[in-house]
Design goal:
Number of helices: 6
Radius of gyration: 16 Å
Strand content: 15-25%
Structural class: alpha/beta
Helix content: 25-40%
Largest sheet: 7 strands, mixed
Number of strands: 7
C-alpha cells in the first residue's frame, strides 16, 4: 500500500483525511515520522503555505508527502480571514472559539453573508510538486449551530443545504467539504 506523510499537527484534519481516503493510502502523521517541528506558515497564499510545509518534510525526511492550507474567505470582509483563519483572533495557537466570536462580531451589520472555504493541497512525490484545490461556497450564519466538526463549522452553511457543517456530522461533511474536494483530486491523481 502506498504511504504518504500528511504534514499537519492538526488531529482533526488527520482524522478527516483518513476518513475521506479510507484504506486506499496509508497516511502517516508528523508524529509517525518523529517530526515535532511546528513548520512555519509564512507565505502570503494558501498555495504558498501548503508548499512550505510539504517542502520541509520532503527536504528533511526524504518522504513523499502532502500538506494543505485552508482558509475561510468572506466576501464582505474582502476575503478575510483567509490565510489567517486559524489565528484570526490573534494570540498563540488556534482558538476556534475566539476566531468565531471575532468573525460573528465583524459580520454583525453585514447583509452580504457570502463566504467560501478553500483548501489547497501540495503533493511532493519523487521531488515533483503538484497542487490540488477544493472550494465549497456558502454563507456565514448569524449564530452558531451544531456540535460536530471544528474551526468555523458551526457558523458556515454550504450553499444548497439547510444545516451548518457542524450540524451535518462528519460523514456528511466529508462528502462535500472543500478538503474532501481537494483530497478527491489528490486521490484521482495518485490512483492514475
Amino acid at each position: 500500500m502506498k504511504k504518504l506523510v500528511f504534514a499537519t499537527n492538526n488531529a482533526h484534519k488527520l482524522d478527516e483525511i483518513r476518513a475521506i481516503l479510507g484504506d486506499k493510502i496509508e497516511i502517516l502523521s508528523l508524529n509517525d515520522i518523529n517530526c515535532h517541528t511546528d513548520i512555519p506558515e509564512t507565505a502570503d497564499t494558501l498555495q504558498g503555505n501548503a508548499a512550505l510545509k510539504a517542502q520541509y518534510i520532503y527536504e528533511n525526511y526524504g518522504l513523499d508527502c502532502f500538506a494543505d492550507d485552508t482558509g475561510l474567505e468572506v466576501e464582505a470582509l474582502n476575503g478575510a480571514p483567509g490565510i489567517y483563519s486559524a489565528r484570526y483572533a490573534g494570540g498563540e495557537g488556534h482558538d476556534s472559539e475566539a476566531n468565531m466570536k471575532k468573525l460573528l462580531s465583524e459580520m454583525q451589520d453585514k447583509d452580504n453573508r457570502k463566504a467560501r472555504f478553500r483548501t489547497v493541497i501540495c503533493l511532493i512525490e519523487g521531488g515533483k510538486e503538484r497542487f490540488f484545490e477544493g472550494i465549497v461556497n456558502g454563507s456565514i450564519i448569524r449564530e452558531r449551530k451544531g456540535g460536530s466538526g471544528f474551526g468555523y463549522d458551526p457558523v458556515f452553511m454550504p450553499d444548497g443545504y439547510s444545516e451548518t457543517f457542524a450540524e451535518m456530522g462528519n460523514d456528511e461533511k466529508n462528502k462535500i467539504s472543500h478538503r474532501a474536494k481537494a483530497v478527491q483530486k489528490l486521490c484521482e491523481y495518485i490512483n492514475k
